[in-house]
Amino acid sequence: MSSNLAEIDFSRGLRHCDGQQELYREVLICYLDQFRPLLDDKALLENVDAARLQFHTLKSLSATIGATPLSKLAAQLFAKWQEQEHDERAEAIRQVNANLALVNGQIESYCNEFNSAD
Q1: pLDDT tens across 68-104, in order?
Q2: Contact 68, 13 (CB under 8 A)
Q3: Is the pLDDT reported for residue 2 higher than 80?
Q4: Predicted pLDDT at 116
Q5: Residue of 27, 24, 82, 28 lying closest to 53 (CA atoms)
């Protein structure tokens, strides 16, 4: 899985927040609150509906912050989750979590830069 899934276009995310830097920073913090613990593979493997809800949430929030590649991956998983075998699902969660960890790190760096600019 390519690390380009972890790319964030911060300028796009800022545009989603009407160019309001403080609002965008708050959205990023909410994203971290939601996804810093990463996805719970056991829970998602046991409950198809919970998994689909989590992927839908990841898709939407990732698009909002400018993490379009991760958003697209989450959308694909949301659409085909029920059709996948257990091992495919487990691998998908592993891949999402690896990229989500990278996205979270970029968000933390961005927020730290924003704080030091104050």
Answers
A1: 999 999 999 999 999 999 999 999 999 999 999 999 9
A2: no
A3: no
A4: 66
A5: 82
Quote the pTM value.
0.90
CA distance 83 to 8: 29
Q: Tell me the C-alpha distance between 68 and 44, whole Å.
A: 22
Name residues whose C-beta falls within 8 Å of residue 73's C-beta, 6 or more positions apart in sequence.
5, 95, 96, 99
Q: How far apart are CA 82 and CA 88, in angstroms?
A: 11
* Tokens matching residue 20: 């309001």
Q: pLDDT band for position 4 (50/70/90)?
A: confident
- Alpha helix locations (H) across 1-118? 10-16, 21-35, 41-46, 48-65, 68-80, 86-117
> b/e string for 43-58 if b means 16 or more Cβ within 10 A?
ebeeeeeebbebbeeb
Radius of gyration of the chain (CA): 14
Report the largest interatomic distance among the alpha carbons of the chain, rounded to a whole angstrom: 49
